[in-house]
Amino acid sequence: MSVPLLDVNAQNLPLESELKAAFDSVLQSGRFIMGDEVTSFENEIAELVGAKYAIGCSSGTDAILLALMALGIGEGDEVLCPSFTFFATAGCVSRVGAIPVFVDSCPACFNIDLAKAGELVNENTKAIIPVHLFGQAADMDSVMEFADENGLAVIEDAAQAIGARYKGLGCGTIGHFGTYSFFPSKNLGGLGDGGMLVTNSEELADQARVLLNHGMKPKYYHQFVGGNFRLDALQAALLRVKLRHYGEYSSGRKENASYYLEKLSPLDGVVVASEADCCCVDTQNAGLRASRAKIVLPVAYKHNDHIWNQFTLRVLDGRREELREFLIERGIGCEVYYPVPLHRQQCFDDLPKRPLPVSEQLAGEVLSIPIYPELTISQKDEVIAAIAAWLTE
Ligand SMILES: *Cc1c(COP(=O)(O)O)cnc(C)c1O
User: Fold this and answer.
1) Is the distance from CB of 194 to CB of 182 less than 8 angstroms?
2) How far, CA to CA in Å, does 265 sit from each of 296, 299, 324, 362?
3) Nearest CA owner, ligand 1 atom 6
4) From 58, 68, 84, 86, mutation site for ligand 1 pocket: most ligand atoms within 8 A of C-beta
5) Minimum mean pLDDT range among 24-38, 48-62, 237-251, 288-302
6) What is the Cα–Cα distance from 313 to 298, expressed in whole angstroms?
7) CA distances from 103 to 116, 319, 328, 338 (A)
8) Is the peptide bond before 218 cis (omega within 30 degrees of 0)?
């Protein structure tokens, strides 16, 4: 039996009749741009995450772009963000003409390490984009304190963390803006592209809404240059169907993560990353090397409600490719998120070079295994058995 990394049909096909009914309803309405489906979906997402305002967008990427534009970030500005993330986080910064300034990450929680950010701030620094990577919140108390001290705007890239919480607050609702993605592999996966921007500021919400639609207000009058970053009514209608089942998807992912942690952590050569190790690479690596660990399991902090967009192992001693090939030979889907940290991407060659040792280390060690909610117990057991076999090889 093979176990895919993700099986969107296992999630969507059981909803076939509900999805077709949603399609029919939009078809019959003849309303394809904006309208009730989009507004209702925005309200439902605002409610889910606990934000005052939600604005449907054409993608998670466009939500980040729109947030930067609404904050007036552009030419000559600098924006702090992690290097160990998906490209869109930093790509949007460049697209508005600003400069991404990469901050190193924490080897235990995979998120931005604020201890490394202070030395990177200057008078051009305008914002910081923490990413809640793999579905677990970044250290938002530290982010907000750092942003306050330095007068920075905060955009939370919560593409992988819709519905995740940090100390009870919805990821994406703590900074000035939060952004979500409905790319099919995200926790609330659409049938195409889609995204959402949230904020608690009426002023920022108004500005974003104008820019979403060509900076037009009133119709055919343009005070600003915006774009077309709108979410389709059809996509909103389909996503509303899936949102009704979101609780099951999240609990499925959490059950799968608990199962892996329970079954994998007792194996010889496996350790769990720990909160005590967070944001302190030197002591952590010393500890791990000494303990003969081969694989480090991800940790879910007690103050976070981790929603497990990915379940990401760290494979030590340069053996990641070996485990990856071993799993693929046995039909177990796995993937490296992300193999090249952003400061090493060719498009950023012109940016000043700074050492980001943890980002590079993670890019060389990480391997994500199947965690999607519809995994069966026998599929999970197969993944576990394959990892156990590799450990004893
Ligand atoms: C997926 C993702 C995005 C972009 O979302 P799209 O909807 O694919 O444009 C941005 N940031 C992170 C961290 C992501 O994982």
Assistant:
1) yes
2) 9, 11, 19, 20
3) 60
4) 86
5) 288-302
6) 6
7) 6, 26, 33, 16
8) yes
Task: Quote the ligand 1 centre to 180 CA distance (angstroms).
Answer: 8
pLDDT band at 287 (very low <50, low <70, confident <90, very high): low
d(CA 199, CA 51): 6
User: What residues flank ligand 1, with Cβ below 6 Å?
Assistant: 59-61, 85-86, 88-89, 131, 157, 159-160, 181, 183, 193, 195
How is residue 112 written in tokens? 């931005």
Nearest CA to ligand 1 atom 5: 60
Q: How many angstroms does the Cα of residue 181 sit away from the middle of ligand 1?
A: 6
pTM of the model: 0.96
Mapped onto helix, strand or coil, the DSSP state of residue 30 is: coil
What domains can be seen in the chain, in order of their start residue? Answer: 8-243 (3.40.640.10), 246-392 (3.90.1150.10)
Q: How far is CA 97 from CA 77, 83, 94, in A?
A: 8, 18, 5
